[in-house]
Amino acid sequence: MQNTSATNIGATIARARHAEGLTQEQLADLLGVTKAAVSKWELGLSLPDVALLPSIAAQFGMSLDELFDWDSQLDEGQVRETAARIALRANDDPEGAYAEIRSVTAEHPFCLPWLLQAAMFYLGRSAADPTRADELRDSAFDCLDRVEARSEDARQLALARFIRAGFLRRQDDRLGEAIALLEGIVGATPIGTSSVLASLYEQCGRAEDAASLRERELFSSLGGVMGGICAQLLAHPSKAQADALLKAGNALVSGFELEEHLPETALTFWAGAAAASAQLEEATEAASYLARFAGLAEKVICAAEQGERFPAGPLFEHVFAPGNAADMVRPPASMVRKGLLSMVEGRGEWSLVAQDSKVARALARIRQL
Question: Taking Cα atoms as reference points, which of 143, 139, 169, 170 lies closest to residue 156?
């Protein structure tokens, strides 16, 4: 059975060794022990000799408490409750709130979720209490330094950098640092990074970069929403659910002029809408969606044969600007035709409305693409 203390110190040594870029053999040489000994420590099978502990801690620039990872962790509920209580207290008793958050942090110096909450608290208070902005920033950075040194969770690291950028953006001479941090985590976390980064671009006079980023975010969001609608349509929704999904999808196709500017997205929706209608045995609606699919598919294939693409339209002109990756994706017509047919072929729903002549004609038209 593994010893808890051995497991803790072993995990700490392994993390620190990886962070330093050392192999087990290299660390063993530095400490004057065998590679097997280091391996056993990291596996939690044994503890280092007491006489070695100061040398190990010094090697990684940490205290003995850090080395042993002596830290009682707060669970998720405790983190939320403690943060909420301190935030409320700060409204009437800011000094008491500061003392309490320092006390909790001292008691749980390596509880990463708590450290992130504490840093967020300091960020909020730095705006409400500008006379202590520097002190609050330093306290937050101390928390964030610990998170970035110890965490292997991409979302935690992204949030830490987002919070750090929140402080840096308030200093005109450090806007570049804030931008660099946010550029490195765009898309890694759903915490509004793109919106903040676009605002910083504008603050620095980079209006074109701000417009381009917002366009790409809108494009990505639109794709996600339409993808979700289509997935739901193909999951055999109820009549009420299907009607709501079709209403939403049709509004997006019309509002964003997807047939004219992003036909592949419109085609995916028409195919899903037709399948959902067929599954509900609504032949007229299924035939209508299939006919729209066929007509637009013919235009897309014709454009592919001529090496052309549909105009991006005013909303996504940056996304599809000449030379951008999206503009350069132009598959051959044969691949386009095969992809379009795959959206419709092999679906069992068609058998439910196969007797309808309009459905039959639309399917035949699609198969002749």
Answer: 143
